[in-house]
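User: My collaborator sent over this chain with a note saying "see what the structure looks like." That's all I know about it. Can you take a look?
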Amino acid sequence: MERTMIRAERLTAIETYLYQAAGGRRATEIAARFGVHRSTVYRDIQSLGEAGSPIWEDNGRFGVLKDRYLTTVRVNLHEALALYLAARLLSAHSDEHSPHVVSALEKLAGAMPESIGEHINRTAAVADKRRPDPEHIRVLETLTGAWSERRQVRLTYHNPQTGETTERNVDPYFIEPSPVGYACYVIGYDHLRKDIREFKVERIERATLLETAFKTRDGFDPYEFLEHSWGIMGGDEVVDVALRFSEKVSYRVRESDWPGVVDVTDEPDGGCRLRLRVKHTLEMKPWIRRWGPDCEVLAPEALRQEIAEDMIEAGRVYESKAI
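Assistant: Without extra context I'll predict from the sequence alone. Here is the result:
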């Protein structure tokens, strides 16, 4: 019995080991990793295949077909709640129909306690009614494959600000949802601009998976790149921002942990002062504007002037137009 359990654990570990390798593993690698003979590896791989695991073999390398792979996850009630909340956020973030979102939610619902699974199923039903965009799905599928397999992708990208459409090869390092506008971005090395760039998936007209493999340049870390970012605009430069909030909204400011917060200090009038360090202020400007007169930009001066001008222009709109 003990020996059977050990083999069962090894089979699971081998399956995970193969799944994590984009280009597959040789039998010698697997044998060395798990301390068994190559003949044992071949028997284990055969057993995995017979059990339904989507194993592939090519020129002596073994791997798992990721688009056909389904893991079994066991969660407790509180972990189930965490997954439910994640599912609700996923649904809220997806403003277009995606069969993958619907399928993922339905599978998650089937693994949840009935009382929670019912709500995830209803969330899936709402997502299933959204407007379809087959080309967007094809682009995202291609990007996912390129990211997973570490292969370059050829993008046809449209910039609505300039009206320019360009062709470029990109090494996709990361795919990141933006909290602004329910958009999704691919971050990677742009061979056209010779630098790290962020590309909005909705602006990619066509994506073609290339055979060229890539390695991450200069130890690029997407989490470091996005640290202190208000959305998806990363980089090296960090800007110090200071904001003052009125007493009317200060409790709402204190309730949340905003990106890049350094500290929150009380003001004598009951308001508060918020200090942040962020990469770029462009993405946080809509958030500042939504507070209206209850938020004053103290620093940097350039941001203060921009917001002041925006507020003046907004006031003119309401002064000049009668309802």
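A starting point for your reply to your collaborator: Residues 77-128 form one domain.
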